[in-house]
Amino acid sequence: MRVASFRYRGQWRVGRVEPESERVLPLAVHDMLEVIGATGPLPVEAPLPLGEVELAAPIPHPARNLFCVGKNYREHAAEFAASGYDTATPAGPGDGAYPAVFTKPGTCVVGPYDRVELHASLTQAVDYEAELAVVIGKGGRDIPAERAMAHVFGYTIINDVSARDRQKNHQQWFLGKSLDTFAPMGPWITTADEVNERDLTVSTWVNGELRQHASTADLIFDIPHIIATISAGLTLQPGDIIATGTPAGVGAGFTPPKFLRAGDTVRISIGNLGTISNTFG
Description:
Layout: E1 2-8, E2 11-18, E3 23-26, H1 32-37, E4 48-49, E5 54-55, E6 66-70, H2 74-83, E7 100-104, E8 109-110, E9 126-127, E10 130-136, E11 152-159, E12 162-163, H3 164-170, H4 174-177, E13 183-191, E14 201-206, E15 209-215, H5 223-230, E16 241-243, E17 265-270, E18 275-279
Protein backbone atom coordinates (compact mmCIF):
# COMPACT_ATOMS: atom_id res chain seq x y z
CA MET A 1 0.00 0.00 0.00
CA ARG A 2 1.10 3.53 -0.78
CA VAL A 3 -0.25 6.33 1.40
CA ALA A 4 0.23 10.03 0.82
CA SER A 5 -0.58 13.39 2.34
CA PHE A 6 -1.99 15.81 -0.21
CA ARG A 7 -3.99 18.96 -0.78
CA TYR A 8 -7.13 18.98 -2.89
CA ARG A 9 -9.29 22.04 -3.42
CA GLY A 10 -7.70 23.81 -0.49
CA GLN A 11 -8.04 20.94 1.99
CA TRP A 12 -5.25 18.74 3.32
CA ARG A 13 -6.06 15.04 3.16
CA VAL A 14 -4.49 11.60 3.46
CA GLY A 15 -5.16 8.89 0.92
CA ARG A 16 -4.16 5.60 -0.59
CA VAL A 17 -2.32 6.07 -3.88
CA GLU A 18 -2.75 3.77 -6.87
CA PRO A 19 0.01 4.88 -9.27
CA GLU A 20 -0.98 2.39 -11.97
CA SER A 21 -4.49 3.82 -12.29
CA GLU A 22 -3.23 7.35 -11.47
CA ARG A 23 -5.72 7.95 -8.70
CA VAL A 24 -5.88 8.63 -4.96
CA LEU A 25 -8.48 7.16 -2.62
CA PRO A 26 -8.97 9.61 0.28
CA LEU A 27 -9.11 8.03 3.71
CA ALA A 28 -11.42 9.07 6.54
CA VAL A 29 -8.57 10.11 8.85
CA HIS A 30 -7.07 13.42 9.97
CA ASP A 31 -3.38 12.72 9.38
CA MET A 32 -0.80 10.08 8.54
CA LEU A 33 -0.30 9.09 12.18
CA GLU A 34 -3.86 7.72 12.20
CA VAL A 35 -2.99 5.55 9.22
CA ILE A 36 0.19 4.34 10.91
CA GLY A 37 -1.74 3.48 14.08
CA ALA A 38 -4.71 1.83 12.39
CA THR A 39 -5.39 -1.76 13.40
CA GLY A 40 -7.67 -2.61 10.50
CA PRO A 41 -8.81 -1.42 7.07
CA LEU A 42 -9.71 2.25 6.82
CA PRO A 43 -12.81 3.41 4.91
CA VAL A 44 -12.09 5.10 1.59
CA GLU A 45 -13.93 7.86 -0.23
CA ALA A 46 -14.50 8.46 -3.94
CA PRO A 47 -11.22 8.35 -5.89
CA LEU A 48 -9.50 11.51 -7.13
CA PRO A 49 -7.22 11.86 -10.17
CA LEU A 50 -3.61 11.76 -8.97
CA GLY A 51 -2.73 14.59 -11.33
CA GLU A 52 -5.23 16.91 -9.65
CA VAL A 53 -3.86 16.68 -6.11
CA GLU A 54 -0.83 18.43 -4.63
CA LEU A 55 1.37 15.87 -2.92
CA ALA A 56 3.01 16.93 0.33
CA ALA A 57 5.65 15.21 2.43
CA PRO A 58 3.99 12.04 3.80
CA ILE A 59 4.41 13.39 7.35
CA PRO A 60 4.44 17.15 6.69
CA HIS A 61 5.12 18.18 10.29
CA PRO A 62 7.08 15.48 12.12
CA ALA A 63 6.55 15.55 15.87
CA ARG A 64 10.25 15.05 16.48
CA ASN A 65 13.57 15.59 14.72
CA LEU A 66 14.47 13.24 11.91
CA PHE A 67 17.08 10.64 12.86
CA CYS A 68 19.85 10.42 10.24
CA VAL A 69 22.78 8.08 9.70
CA GLY A 70 25.96 9.49 8.19
CA LYS A 71 28.64 7.79 6.09
CA ASN A 72 26.72 4.52 5.81
CA TYR A 73 28.01 3.52 2.35
CA ARG A 74 31.75 2.82 2.14
CA GLU A 75 32.32 4.59 -1.18
CA HIS A 76 30.55 7.70 0.06
CA ALA A 77 32.46 7.58 3.33
CA ALA A 78 35.68 7.50 1.30
CA GLU A 79 34.69 10.35 -1.02
CA PHE A 80 33.55 12.50 1.89
CA ALA A 81 36.72 11.84 3.88
CA ALA A 82 38.77 12.95 0.86
CA SER A 83 36.61 16.03 0.17
CA GLY A 84 38.00 18.22 2.94
CA TYR A 85 34.52 18.88 4.34
CA ASP A 86 34.45 16.01 6.86
CA THR A 87 35.71 17.75 9.99
CA ALA A 88 33.04 16.26 12.26
CA THR A 89 34.24 12.66 11.92
CA PRO A 90 37.89 12.89 10.85
CA ALA A 91 38.62 9.20 11.49
CA GLY A 92 37.50 8.43 7.95
CA PRO A 93 35.50 5.62 6.36
CA GLY A 94 34.89 2.31 8.03
CA ASP A 95 36.91 3.13 11.15
CA GLY A 96 34.06 3.02 13.66
CA ALA A 97 32.11 0.14 15.15
CA TYR A 98 29.05 2.34 15.56
CA PRO A 99 26.84 4.29 13.15
CA ALA A 100 27.26 8.06 13.06
CA VAL A 101 23.82 9.43 13.98
CA PHE A 102 22.67 13.05 13.85
CA THR A 103 19.31 14.83 13.55
CA LYS A 104 17.48 17.32 11.34
CA PRO A 105 14.54 19.34 12.70
CA GLY A 106 11.08 18.83 11.27
CA THR A 107 11.15 22.40 9.95
CA CYS A 108 13.43 21.10 7.17
CA VAL A 109 10.65 18.98 5.68
CA VAL A 110 9.01 19.99 2.40
CA GLY A 111 7.11 18.10 -0.26
CA PRO A 112 8.39 15.87 -3.05
CA TYR A 113 8.14 18.58 -5.71
CA ASP A 114 8.60 21.74 -3.62
CA ARG A 115 11.29 24.35 -4.16
CA VAL A 116 14.35 24.05 -1.93
CA GLU A 117 15.98 27.26 -0.74
CA LEU A 118 19.69 27.75 -1.41
CA HIS A 119 20.11 30.21 1.50
CA ALA A 120 22.75 32.07 -0.53
CA SER A 121 23.50 34.50 2.31
CA LEU A 122 24.57 31.58 4.53
CA THR A 123 26.18 29.00 2.27
CA GLN A 124 27.81 28.54 -1.12
CA ALA A 125 28.14 24.77 -0.88
CA VAL A 126 24.65 23.21 -0.99
CA ASP A 127 24.75 19.49 -1.75
CA TYR A 128 22.27 16.65 -2.32
CA GLU A 129 22.06 13.25 -0.60
CA ALA A 130 19.56 10.64 -1.77
CA GLU A 131 18.47 8.41 1.10
CA LEU A 132 16.07 5.62 1.93
CA ALA A 133 13.98 6.71 4.92
CA VAL A 134 12.35 4.32 7.38
CA VAL A 135 9.02 5.26 8.98
CA ILE A 136 8.47 3.72 12.40
CA GLY A 137 5.06 2.14 12.93
CA LYS A 138 5.35 0.52 16.34
CA GLY A 139 7.19 2.39 19.06
CA GLY A 140 9.61 0.87 21.49
CA ARG A 141 12.84 1.15 23.44
CA ASP A 142 15.83 -1.19 23.49
CA ILE A 143 14.56 -2.92 20.35
CA PRO A 144 16.75 -5.92 19.47
CA ALA A 145 17.92 -6.12 15.86
CA GLU A 146 16.22 -9.46 15.35
CA ARG A 147 12.82 -7.87 16.09
CA ALA A 148 13.46 -4.44 14.62
CA MET A 149 11.61 -4.96 11.33
CA ALA A 150 8.35 -5.53 13.21
CA HIS A 151 8.56 -1.85 14.20
CA VAL A 152 8.71 -0.56 10.60
CA PHE A 153 5.54 0.82 9.02
CA GLY A 154 7.06 1.65 5.65
CA TYR A 155 9.58 3.57 3.58
CA THR A 156 9.89 6.84 1.72
CA ILE A 157 12.53 8.93 -0.05
CA ILE A 158 14.40 11.84 1.51
CA ASN A 159 16.98 14.24 0.12
CA ASP A 160 19.26 15.05 3.06
CA VAL A 161 20.27 18.44 1.65
CA SER A 162 23.50 19.66 3.21
CA ALA A 163 25.48 22.92 3.37
CA ARG A 164 29.00 21.51 3.30
CA ASP A 165 30.75 24.74 4.29
CA ARG A 166 28.57 25.05 7.41
CA GLN A 167 29.32 21.42 8.29
CA LYS A 168 33.02 22.13 7.98
CA ASN A 169 33.05 25.50 9.71
CA HIS A 170 31.03 24.39 12.73
CA GLN A 171 32.80 20.99 12.97
CA GLN A 172 29.52 19.13 13.33
CA TRP A 173 26.65 18.30 11.01
CA PHE A 174 23.54 19.80 12.59
CA LEU A 175 23.74 23.40 11.35
CA GLY A 176 24.77 22.34 7.87
CA LYS A 177 21.88 19.90 7.61
CA SER A 178 19.10 21.86 9.28
CA LEU A 179 18.26 24.91 7.17
CA ASP A 180 14.61 25.36 6.24
CA THR A 181 13.51 23.20 3.26
CA PHE A 182 16.60 20.96 3.55
CA ALA A 183 14.58 17.71 3.71
CA PRO A 184 12.33 17.23 0.67
CA MET A 185 10.48 13.96 1.17
CA GLY A 186 7.96 11.66 -0.49
CA PRO A 187 6.21 11.14 -2.75
CA TRP A 188 4.38 8.79 -0.35
CA ILE A 189 5.02 6.01 2.16
CA THR A 190 5.15 2.50 0.73
CA THR A 191 4.27 -0.02 3.43
CA ALA A 192 6.90 -2.52 4.50
CA ASP A 193 5.07 -5.54 3.09
CA GLU A 194 5.68 -4.23 -0.45
CA VAL A 195 9.37 -3.38 -0.08
CA ASN A 196 12.56 -5.44 -0.16
CA GLU A 197 14.57 -2.90 1.79
CA ARG A 198 17.74 -4.99 1.51
CA ASP A 199 18.11 -4.44 -2.25
CA LEU A 200 16.67 -1.16 -3.50
CA THR A 201 18.39 0.86 -6.22
CA VAL A 202 19.07 4.46 -5.17
CA SER A 203 19.55 6.90 -8.07
CA THR A 204 20.01 10.68 -8.29
CA TRP A 205 20.03 12.94 -11.33
CA VAL A 206 21.06 16.61 -11.29
CA ASN A 207 19.70 18.42 -14.34
CA GLY A 208 19.38 15.02 -16.01
CA GLU A 209 22.95 13.90 -15.22
CA LEU A 210 23.14 10.64 -13.25
CA ARG A 211 25.21 11.32 -10.13
CA GLN A 212 24.31 8.57 -7.63
CA HIS A 213 23.48 4.94 -8.44
CA ALA A 214 23.84 2.24 -5.78
CA SER A 215 21.96 -0.42 -3.85
CA THR A 216 20.83 -0.48 -0.25
CA ALA A 217 22.54 -3.87 -0.16
CA ASP A 218 25.72 -1.80 0.25
CA LEU A 219 24.69 -0.22 3.56
CA ILE A 220 27.42 -0.60 6.17
CA PHE A 221 24.87 -0.73 8.98
CA ASP A 222 21.59 -2.33 7.92
CA ILE A 223 18.16 -1.19 9.04
CA PRO A 224 17.76 -3.63 11.96
CA HIS A 225 21.16 -2.54 13.29
CA ILE A 226 20.24 1.13 12.92
CA ILE A 227 16.91 0.73 14.73
CA ALA A 228 18.55 -1.25 17.53
CA THR A 229 21.25 1.41 17.91
CA ILE A 230 18.93 4.42 17.97
CA SER A 231 16.37 2.79 20.26
CA ALA A 232 18.95 1.81 22.88
CA GLY A 233 17.70 3.72 25.91
CA LEU A 234 15.68 6.05 23.63
CA THR A 235 12.02 5.38 22.94
CA LEU A 236 11.11 5.43 19.26
CA GLN A 237 7.58 6.58 18.53
CA PRO A 238 5.13 5.87 15.69
CA GLY A 239 5.82 8.33 12.90
CA ASP A 240 9.51 8.72 13.67
CA ILE A 241 11.60 8.95 10.51
CA ILE A 242 15.09 7.48 10.10
CA ALA A 243 17.23 8.39 7.07
CA THR A 244 19.69 5.58 6.41
CA GLY A 245 22.56 7.36 4.63
CA THR A 246 23.55 8.29 1.09
CA PRO A 247 25.72 6.50 -1.49
CA ALA A 248 28.70 7.92 -3.38
CA GLY A 249 28.25 10.61 -6.00
CA VAL A 250 27.45 13.69 -3.93
CA GLY A 251 28.60 17.06 -5.20
CA ALA A 252 31.37 17.35 -2.59
CA GLY A 253 32.95 14.19 -3.96
CA PHE A 254 33.86 15.71 -7.33
CA THR A 255 37.02 17.67 -8.17
CA PRO A 256 36.15 20.49 -8.28
CA PRO A 257 32.97 20.05 -6.23
CA LYS A 258 29.64 20.19 -8.05
CA PHE A 259 27.49 22.12 -5.61
CA LEU A 260 23.96 23.16 -6.48
CA ARG A 261 23.09 26.48 -8.09
CA ALA A 262 19.88 28.42 -8.65
CA GLY A 263 17.65 26.63 -11.12
CA ASP A 264 19.19 23.18 -10.65
CA THR A 265 16.76 20.27 -10.39
CA VAL A 266 17.53 17.17 -8.33
CA ARG A 267 15.52 14.04 -9.09
CA ILE A 268 15.75 10.96 -6.84
CA SER A 269 14.25 7.51 -7.40
CA ILE A 270 14.50 4.53 -5.06
CA GLY A 271 13.31 1.08 -6.12
CA ASN A 272 9.52 0.84 -6.14
CA LEU A 273 9.11 3.83 -3.79
CA GLY A 274 8.60 6.42 -6.52
CA THR A 275 10.41 9.64 -7.42
CA ILE A 276 10.88 13.09 -5.92
CA SER A 277 12.07 16.09 -7.94
CA ASN A 278 12.97 19.46 -6.46
CA THR A 279 14.25 22.66 -8.01
CA PHE A 280 16.72 24.74 -6.00
CA GLY A 281 16.73 28.50 -5.84
